[in-house]
Design goal:
Elements lengths: L15 E3 L2 E3 L4 E5 L6 E6 L3 H20 L2 H17 L1 H12 L3 H25 L6 E3 L2 E9 L2 E5 L5 H14 L3 E5 L6 H13 L6 E3 L4 H10 L3 E7 L2 H14 L3 E4 L5 E4 L5 H10 L13 E5 L3 H12 L20 H16 L3 E4 L15 E4 L6 H4 L6 E7 L2 H9 L6 E5 L3 H10 L4 E4 L18 E2 L4 H8 E8 L2
Parallel strand pairs: 7-8, 7-10, 8-9, 10-11, 12-13, 12-17, 13-16, 15-16, 17-18
Antiparallel strand pairs: 1-2, 3-4, 5-6, 6-20, 11-19, 14-15
Helix pairs in contact: 1-7, 2-4, 2-6, 3-4, 4-5, 9-10
This protein binds nicotinamide-adenine-dinucleotide.
C-alpha cells in the first residue's frame, strides 16, 4: 500500500507485537482516516493463531515479571511515561488522524493523561497499595497483592490509547503480563505504543498487541483459557458476548460500558454554567461514554436555558480536528455516522422537534454531523433510552425534584450524572438518589485517578482507578501468622 497521504504522520509498524517481535498475519485490513476516508495503513488481521502466540508469550514472560520488585516495575512504568511524553506530538497527530478527535485535546489533555496513567499507578504501587497488618487474637493478618497472570485488554475507538493505558498501567504495575486487542477502527497508537514500551526496556512478552477484528481476534482472546483477567471497555452487546465467553473459564472480568447520562438543571441553577456544561456534552463529537446527553431542565427555566444553550452551541466551530480552532470534528466511521443519523431520523419521524442541527453538516460533507438538540421526546422514545454516541442531546422538562430524579434514573444505564444547582443540600440529596458511578455537581469531566470509576446497571461491572484497579488485577491473599 502507498504511504498515507496525511502529512506529518510518524511511521508505524502495524504488525502485531508478540514476545517483543513484530509478527505479521496473512490477512490484513485497511485502516482509514475519518477526516477524509484516506487509507492510513494496512493492518495485520490476527485471529486465533496470533492470540494463542501472544497469550503463550505473555505466559512465558509472567513468572519473571511477577518476581520483579515493585521499585523495578515502577521505574519501568515511569520510563514508559517518559517515552510517551517524548513522543507526545507524534501520538497526538496519529490519534487525530485515526479517530478524528481534536488535536488540541490530544496535545493538552489526552496524551498527557496517557503518561499520567503510568506515573499514577507506579506511584500508587510504591506509596498507597498496602494496608497495615491487623490482629485477630494475637494472630497477624497480612494482606498481599499477588499478580493474577495474563490480562486480556479490549478497548474501543473513542479514546484509544488513553483508555488502553488506563488498563495497561495498573495491570503491569501489579506484575501481570498483557495482551491488548485495540479497536479495529483505531489501531495505530497501540502499535506505536509497543515501540515505546520496548524503548523503555519492558522485557519481551510482558506487553503484547494483537491487531484484528472483534469477532475474530477479540473473541479468541476472551475465550482463551490461559487468560486470568479480562478488562473490556466498549458497548453493551459486545460485553454480553464477552461475559458468556468468560463464563466458560470463569475468568474474572471488568466491564466499562455505555451510558445515557442525565444533566439535570434545577430552577436555582446558574443558567450560564448550565448552558456551558450542556455544550460540553458535544465534546469529541459526542463520542463520549460519560456524556450527559439527556438534558432534564426545570420547566420554569427551560426557556432561558434553551436560549443560552442555542446561543453558545451556535458558536461551536465544526471542521478539521487538526485545526486547533476546531471544536467539533467528524464521526469515527461511515457505519457509525449512519447509525447516529438513523437515531435522529427515527426520532424526528416519531415527533421530536429539532432545536439545533438535526442532520449531517452538508457544508463540510464527509462524516461531519451537526451538533443536534431534540425536544418533544417521550421518556420511552428510543432517542431517550438508547445510547446514540454522537453529538445528539435531548431536552426534557420536569416540575419537581422527585420527578427529576425519576426521569434521571429511568434508564437501563448508570454511568454518570451531572447536577446543576446552587443549593448544596439539594445537590447532596439528589446525588444520594441517583444511580450513577460518577455524579458531577456544577462541573463535568473532572477526574481524579484515585477515585473509583465505572458504571452501575448496564453501564458495567466493577470499578477502575486507584486501589480498585489493583483489586481487579491482583489475587488478594491474607496470610494469618500465629503469635
Ligand atoms: P464495541 O463494543 O463495538 O467494540 C469495543 C472493542 O470490542 C473493540 O476492540 C472490538 O474489536 C471488540 N470486540 C467486538 N466484538 C468482540 C467480540 N465478539 N469479542 C471480543 N471483542 C470484541 O464498542 P465501540 O463501538 O468500539 O465503543 C463504543 C462503546 O464503548 C460505547 O458504548 C461507549 O459508551 C463505550 N465506552 C465506554 C467507556 C467507559 O469507560 N464506560 C469508555 C469509552 C467507551
Amino acid at each position: 500500500m502507498e504511504a498515507s497521504p496525511v502529512p506529518n504522520l510518524p511511521e508505524v509498524d502495524t504488525r502485531h507485537w508478540i514476545g517483543g517481535e513484530r509478527v505479521g498475519s496473512p490477512a490484513t485490513f485497511v485502516d482509514r482516516s475519518p477526516l477524509d476516508g484516506v487509507p492510513l495503513a494496512e493492518i495485520s488481521q490476527g485471529g486465533a493463531a496470533e492470540i494463542d502466540a501472544a497469550v503463550s508469550a505473555a505466559q512465558q514472560a509472567f513468572p519473571a515479571w511477577a518476581a520483579t520488585s515493585r521499585k523495578e516495575r515502577a521505574e519501568l512504568l515511569h520510563a514508559i511515561a517518559d517515552g510517551v511524553e517524548a513522543r507526545l506530538e507524534e501520538l497526538a497527530q496519529l490519534e487525530t488522524a485515526d479517530n478524528g478527535a481534536l488535536i488540541r485535546s490530544h496535545r493538552r489533555g489526552v496524551i498527557p493523561r496517557v503518561a499520567h496513567n503510568f506515573r499514577f499507578f507506579a506511584d500508587w504501587l510504591l506509596d498507597e497499595l498496602d494496608h497495615p497488618d491487623f490482629e485477630t487474637r494475637g494472630h497477624r493478618n497480612h494482606v498481599s497483592w499477588d499478580p493474577a497472570g495474563v490480562c486480556a485488554l479490549i478497548t474501543p475507538w473513542n479514546a484509544p490509547l488513553m483508555l488502553a493505558t488506563w488498563k495497561i498501567a495498573p495491570a503491569l504495575a501489579a506484575g501481570n503480563t498483557v495482551v491488548l486487542k485495540p479497536a479495529e477502527w483505531t489501531p495505530l497508537t497501540a502499535s506505536l505504543f509497543a515501540d515505546i514500551t520496548a524503548e523503555a526496556g519492558l522485557p519481551p512478552g510482558v506487553f503484547n498487541v494483537v491487531q484484528g477484528l472483534g469477532h475474530e481476534a477479540g473473541a479468541a482472546l476472551v475465550a482463551h483459557p490461559g487468560v486470568r483477567r479480562i478488562s473490556f471497555t466498549g458497548s453493551v452487546p459486545t460485553a454480553r458476548g464477552i461475559a458468556a465467553a468468560a463464563a466458560a473459564n470463569l475468568t474474572p472480568l471488568s466491564l466499562e460500558l455505555g451510558g445515557k447520562s442525565p444533566l439535570i438543571v434545577f430552577e436555582d441553577a446558574d443558567l450560564d454554567l448550565a448552558a456551558d456544561l450542556a455544550v460540553e456534552q458535544y465534546d469529541n463529537a459526542g463520542q463520549v461514554c460519560l456524556a450527559g446527553t439527556r438534558l432534564l431542565v426545570h420547566a420554569n427555566v427551560v426557556g432561558e436555558f434553551q436560549k443560552r444553550l442555542l446561543d453558545k452551541a451556535s458558536r461551536l466551530k465544526q471542521g478539521d480536528p487538526r485545526d486547533p480552532e476546531t471544536d467539533i470534528g467528524p464521526q469515527i466511521h461511515p457505519d457509525h455516522f449512519a447509525r447516529v443519523d438513523g437515531f435522529v431520523r427515527r426520532a424526528v419521524d416519531g415527533g421530536a422537534r429539532v432545536l439545533l442541527g438535526g442532520g449531517p453538516n452538508t457544508d463540510l460533507g464527509g462524516l461531519f454531523y451537526r451538533p443536534t438538540l431534540l425536544t418533544d421526546v417521550a421518556p420511552d422514545a428510543e432517542i431517550v433510552t438508547e445510547e446514540v454516541f454522537g453529538p445528539v442531546l435531548t431536552l426534557q422538562t420536569f416540575g419537581s425534584e422527585t420527578e427529576a430524579v425519576a426521569l434521571a434514573n429511568g434508564t437501563k444505564f448508570g454511568l454518570a450524572a451531572v447536577i446543576v444547582t446552587s443549593d448544596e443540600e439539594r445537590a447532596a440529596r439528589v446525588s444520594g438518589k441517583l444511580v450513577a458511578g460518577t455524579v458531577w455537581v456544577n462541573c463535568f469531566f473532572v477526574r481524579d485517578l484515585r477515585a473509583p470509576f465505572g458504571g452501575s446497571r448496564q453501564s458495567g461491572i466493577g470499578r477502575e482507578g486507584g486501589t480498585w484497579s489493583f483489586d481487579f488485577y491482583c489475587d488478594l491473599k491474607n496470610t494469618v501468622t500465629a503469635p
